[in-house]
Design brief:
The complex is a heterodimer. By secondary structure, chain A is α/β, with parallel strands linked by helices. Chain A has 18 helices and 13 strands. The radius of gyration of chain A is 29 Å and the shape is elongated. Chain B is about 35% helix and about 25% strand. Classes of the chains: A alpha/beta, B alpha/beta.
Chain lengths: ~500, ~220
């Protein structure tokens, strides 16, 4: 039995070893890199001729690096732009490229390559404003948009304190320019490549790009902190590509080459150490303290959005519930239709429709659109809670009121409503706590609330642990007292009824 | 029909699901008279009271209360029932006090919001009624804190507060002990002596003996 067992174990071991070696070989010959095709050309975009493939200058840079590393091919992995750093540390891919900016925080957290492209942070304004806006200093009290978690956003945050402009963060780089043209924003600060692309898409009209850059930054590749050896190899390939002109050819093919790139290549080839540029964020233990004020502001926004939305939801919910119980056939049908449509479609879709969809008819400010979308969405759920609660009031109570001569409206206001409130209180509290969390969705229409601010914080420090814990603590601090108050009210009413 | 009757029920018929709940009930209640409506369970005593209070429709016959006529068919909207509501009070078997209000507020609510009395006037009327029914000390209690007898007397006080000419009572002694039944009978006799008419549905023969007349449904 022992004699038979030993060869069996050896075979298994050999099989595992072979499989493992084959896998390693397969992996070693392919450079797996991550980027965000949603960012679009000229960085990375789905190839119109074959949407299963990607194209763009970052795609070609990745392929050049793969060849230089003797890996033959580069395999693309789609990842959300703001999550590139976290994904590369998780090991989802070896190299992150997609207009990844060179920042001190990124260099402190990850293995970062030498810069391979120099971009300029440029301001875009409406043509009518071009004569009087020349820099951030001219934007006091004005709304300036950019992409969240970027150098540009950090520049705007710094300028907010020094010049008093209003920094607005977006999740994408398309809508800031659309909102600039619509008049919702007064300026957009973003990379010159993005600004030029947006202008081309609009046929060169709608806004102008100011010639004087606000800042200069660089694109780099990012690798896991433990992959510094691979990073050094990638750096060597990038230097070689700068020397042999292949990197210049890539940039020229994508029309992003200019004289500043040649100057960058010269500096990089001369320098031994990497160069981090752009906004410098706080480091170490001071980070948490530095972010606390912005988290507190964002928490206040969350609370304000939730309270105002809930107030709207209660008012509309009461009206809808009353319509369903007391209205004519037509009103009952309309209110039922409202409830079913709102409950049957995603809140995210409703946010987009109210903010972007209605923009052609009415240009709602983001904050108002957020309250409208959240309030009207929750009104459908509140209406059903109130309808159920009103129907739960015993019929004999209503009959007793009728024999005393109350009108139907008085019965609703003085007898049925107050009694129904007791039944509705627990689910209403539940809804409000849910709304505190659902309000995070409004960040898609540029309202920076707690979760969004935490995501920005987490991206900047390269970790979700401290920001996540802080964020959770703030949410709990807001929701727990509310739940406690509701329990106390329920208890008081129960004692009163016992 | 007597012209001096406050309530006249003439050949009242109520059907439900093709079943006759009430078949041709006729009775009259004179001013200051207490009439007990007796009969086995399900015979239609409560239905008759509910029809008189316009809480449910009836299919045939006629009801007239102090000149106000109810006719067969759906219950009229409340806006057309205002004269009836001023004339008729109703005490439910389950007393149906408003659970979210104190005993005092149960009584003052209609006085203030239906009859337009001031808070002070309403409080005075309510306190007097509660005291006369021996529950003055329970004015601040909520219905769930009252005993069955106390709740019943608060419900009577609530029904009496708007000063109706006719009081309809559904099984008023169901939750009372014998001593309380006797006390309630004395109270109700006192109301009749003040000129009020009472139509009381009851199973309680001893209690019914206090009435001027007993009408038995079969």
């Amino acid at each position: 039995m022992i004699i038979r067992a030993v060869p069996s174990q050896v075979c298994k071991l050999a099989l595992c070893l072979c499989t493992s070696l084959l896998a390693q070989d397969r992996t070693a010959r392919v450079l797996v890199w991550g980027g965000d095709a949603e960012g679009g050309a000229p960085y990375v975009e789905a190839d119109p001729a074959n949407p299963a493939r990607v194209r763009g200058f970052d795609v070609e840079v990745a392929e050049r690096i793969a060849r230089g590393l003797d890996r033959g091919t580069a395999r693309f992995v789609q990842v959300q732009w703001s999550d590139i750093d976290l994904s590369v540390e998780r090991g989802d891919f070896a190299l992150g490229l997609s207009g990844v900016e060179d920042t001190p925080a990124r260099r402190a957290q990850h293995a970062v390559t030498i810069p391979y492209f120099e971009f300029r942070e440029v301001l875009a304004v409406r043509p009518a404003d071009a004569a009087r806006i020349h820099s951030l200093a001219d934007l006091r009290g004005r709304r300036v948009a950019t992409l969240g978690s970027t150098i540009a956003y950090n520049i705007l945050l710094a300028a907010r304190d020094s010049t008093g402009l209003i920094a607005i963060s977006y999740d994408d780089d398309v809508h800031p320019y659309a909102d600039l043209v619509r008049g919702r924003m007064d300026a957009v600060l973003l990379d010159h490549i993005i600004a030029q692309r947006a202008l081309r898409r609009r046929g060169g009209i709608g806004f102008v790009i100011l010639p004087q850059p606000v800042a200069v930054g660089h694109y780099v590749g990012v690798l896991a902190r433990a992959d510094s050896a691979l990073r050094d190899s990638v750096d060597a390939v990038l230097r070689e590509a700068m020397r042999d002109g292949s990197l210049e050819q890539i940039f020229r093919r994508w029309n992003v080459w200019d004289e500043t790139q040649g100057a960058l290549f010269d500096r990089v080839l001369r320098a031994k150490t990497a160069m981090a540029a752009g906004a410098v964020g706080p480091a170490g233990a001071a980070q948490a303290l530095a972010y606390l004020p912005s988290l507190a502001r964002a928490a206040a926004v969350t609370l304000l959005v939730s309270v105002l939305s809930m107030a709207l939801a209660v008012i509309v919910g009461l009206a809808v519930a009353s319509g369903r119980l007391y209205g004519s056939v037509l009103l009952r049908w309309l209110t039922t239709f409202y409830v079913e449509v709102i409950r049957g479609t995603p809140l995210l879709l409703q946010l987009f429709v109210i903010y972007y969809g209605l923009a052609g008819v009415v240009r709602l400010p983001a904050f108002l659109a957020a309250i409208l979308a959240l309030g009207l969405n929750y009104a459908a759920y509140e209406a059903e809670i109130y309808r159920g609660a009103l129907e739960a009031v015993p019929r004999v109570q209503l009959e007793a009121a009728r024999t005393l001569g109350f009108t139907e409206l008085q019965i609703l206001r003085l007898i049925r409503g107050p009694q129904a409130l007791r039944y509705a209180l627990a689910p209403m509290t539940n809804d409000f706590v849910a709304m505190l969390k659902d309000s995070a969705l409004v960040s898609v229409i540029t309202v920076v609330e707690l979760t969004k601010q935490t995501a920005i914080y987490a991206t900047n420090v390269g970790s979700w642990i401290v920001p996540g814990l802080l964020c959770a603590a703030v949410y709990l601090a807001m929701s727990l007292p509310l739940a406690r108050l509701a329990r106390r009210l329920e208890h008081r009413w129960r004692v009163g009824a016992a | 029909m007597s012209s001096g009757s406050l309530l006249v029920i003439d050949a009242l018929c109520v059907r439900y699901d093709a079943r006759d709940i009430l078949r041709s009930l006729s009775l009259e209640v004179a001013r200051g008279e207490m009439v007990a409506l007796m009969g086995p369970s399900g015979v239609g005593k409560t239905t008759a009271l509910r029809a008189v209070a316009a809480l449910q429709p009836f299919d045939a016959g006629a009801i007239r209360i102090d000149g106000f006529a109810l006719t067969p068919g759906p219950v009229p909207p409340e806006t057309r029932l205002v004269p009836l509501r001023r004339r008729v009070g109703f005490v439910f078997q389950s007393h149906a006090l408003f659970e979210h209000l104190t005993a005092l507020d149960n009584i003052t609510l209609a006085l203030r919001h239906v009859l337009g009395k001031t808070r002070t006037e309403a409080d005075t009327i309510a306190a007097t009624l509660l005291a006369s029914l021996d529950v003055g000390a329970r004015a601040g209690a909520r219905p769930s804190q009252l005993s069955g007898g106390e709740a019943q007397r608060v419900a009577i006080a609530r029904a009496l507060a708007p000063d109706p000419a006719l009081l309809l009572m559904d099984e008023p002694t169901a939750a009372l002990d014998p001593a309380r039944r006797s006390a309630l009978a004395t109270t109700l006799r006192g109301l009749c002596e003040q000129g009020r008419s009472l139509l009381v549905a009851t199973h309680d023969a001893e209690f019914a003996a206090h009435a001027n007349r007993v009408v038995t449904l079969i």
